[in-house]
Design goal:
Elements lengths: L12 H4 L12 H6 L5 E7 L2 H17 L2 E7 L1 H12 L8 E5 L3 H6 L7 H4 L16 H8 E2 L12 E2 L2 E6 L1 E6 H7 L7 H15 L2 E4 L6 H11 L18 H16 L9 H9 L3 E7 L18 E4 L12 E6 L7 H11 L2 H9 L7 H4 L2 H6 L3 H7 L14 H17 L5 H18 L6
Parallel strand pairs: 1-2, 1-3, 8-9
Antiparallel strand pairs: 3-11, 4-5, 6-11, 7-9, 7-10
């Protein structure tokens, strides 16, 4: 059997370093699936628009392969506790799990999920037409890799533990009708964005910019969304907290202004409430995940179809677009691991990626974003293709301790600033000791 690396020079070779995925020739699809016909893959997924789109194409997998899929769909906020419970058993109920990017380091550190490189190297399982180089580079780095630089980026030691599915970057959406009415232009910088907030609120009587603000992960997400372009970081190169430096304070002051000029209730908004506010005409702008693009023209969800334009995430001291979202992994204690891999491979294949996007899901592959039929359905994907040039895989520190820092430390501080309990400076400065203690406990800093 002739072997050649799937990771081509100039493509993904520098990302996955030691991972050499061979292309297997001469293995027919029916041969891959025949052994597993009749097996049932149990899959844990969130109540989420991308996975709602996935459910519409999922019956095709069973029809094509004979492998059944049982879906456990639960609220995204409950997924991690349920997954940890199942993955702690000698054999869990889940064969595949959807995970939020922030969990990948913790899951690997606790030895809960499989490295999937051996599956791609298995001639009986690997699809020779899969083409991992076609997956958006920033998505694969951000959601799939553990090891390497900082423990979660490309470089020596990096291995692939998951595949992006429901991956995201950020984009600016704005009401074209409102902007034209008042002679406004879509902001290209953060200065322009900030100068629009008060006038839009005053002239329209609706929120200027919708946003997340709920305590915990949601408000941290919103803060990072602005801190990165403004030049801020959570840690320096030696893992010392620096989120309380000027860029972090400026980002939190801006987020407070966004909350004050936005739709009523932002301090309690999660992703769903933020999106709904924009789709229901309660805000003039939206700056967050690209998930919005598949819903704006859906009449069952949106009152603003045909009225929305898109622009790049505005520039601060630099361009820096969000990276994150959802991926798929195989638990170490899964019963049907091979069949689960076949499902993951099928869902993230070129043909399935096109199908899920047509149903309103997120694109994972560049070939999908360049597909004429997709561009005809979503002409604004031209903006998305440009935005992907600025995807930042190091948008937040995806270490195993991040979930604790995110929810129990920064998620408290930022909420206190948004609700006016503390000033941005006091909120961030006050959380440095707690984050430092967490980093000492994790071995990043000397105790």
């Amino acid at each position: 059997m002739k072997r050649r690396d799937l990771l081509k020079a100039g493509g993904m070779a520098g990302i996955l370093a030691a991972a050499q995925f061979p292309l297997i020739k001469g293995v027919l699809a029916q041969d891959r699936y025949a052994k597993y016909k009749g097996q049932t893959v149990v899959m844990n997924i969130p109540a989420h628009p991308h996975y709602d789109a996935m459910l519409k194409i999922l019956p095709e997998f069973t029809a094509e392969t004979g492998i059944k899929v049982e879906v456990d769909k639960i609220a995204i906020g409950r997924m991690k506790d349920k997954q940890l419970l199942e993955m702690a058993k000698p054999q869990g109920d889940y064969d595949a799990v959807c995970y939020i990017v922030m969990w990948k380091g913790e899951y690997v550190k606790k030895n809960l999920i499989e490295c999937i490189e051996p599956y791609f190297q298995n001639a009986a399982l690997a699809d020779p037409n899969y083409d991992i180089n076609d997956i958006v580079k920033g998505y694969l780095e951000n959601l799939g890799l553990v090891g390497g630089k900082k423990g979660y980026l490309p470089g020596p030691g990096a291995k692939l533990y998951g595949l992006p599915y429901g991956a995201e970057t950020s984009v600016l959406a704005y009401r074209k009708d409102i902007f034209e009415k008042h002679g406004f232009k879509a902001p290209t910088t953060y200065d322009e964005l900030q100068k629009l907030l008060a006038p839009l609120k005053a002239k329209e009587g609706i929120g200027a910019l919708t946003s997340r603000g709920q305590a915990g992960h949601q408000c941290v997400h919103a803060w990072l969304l602005h801190m990165n372009p403004l030049g801020g970081e959570v840690f320096d190169d030696n893992w010392n907290p620096v989120f309380n430096k000027q860029p972090g304070i400026d980002a939190l002051k801006l987020l407070k202004e966004i909350s004050d000029t936005g739709p009523a209730g932002i301090p309690g908004y999660g992703q769903g409430e933020m999106i709904t506010a924009f789709l229901q005409g309660q805000a003039s702008m939206y700056l967050d995940a690209i998930l919005i693009m598949g819903q704006v023209n859906d009449p069952s969800k949106s009152k603003i179809a045909g009225k929305v334009g898109y622009a790049l995430h505005p520039k601060g001291s630099r361009y820096a677009a969000q990276s994150g979202g959802l991926g798929l992994a195989i638990p170490k204690n899964a019963k049907n691991k091979d069949a689960a891999f076949l499902l993951m491979q099928w869902l993230t294949s070129k043909s399935s990626d096109i199908k899920v996007v047509k149903q309103g899901g997120n694109a994972t592959r560049m070939s999908t974003l360049n597909n004429p039929d997709i561009l005809k359905q979503y002409p604004d994907f031209e903006i998305l293709k440009e935005q992907l040039k600025y995807v930042e895989p190091d948008w937040r520190p995806l270490i195993a301790e991040w979930d604790e820092i995110n929810i129990q430390a920064l998620g408290v501080a930022i909420s206190e600033a948004l609700t006016g309990k503390k000033t941005p400076e006091d909120a961030l400065n006050g959380m440095v000791p707690k984050v430092t203690d967490i980093m000492k406990r994790g071995g990043y800093l000397k105790a």
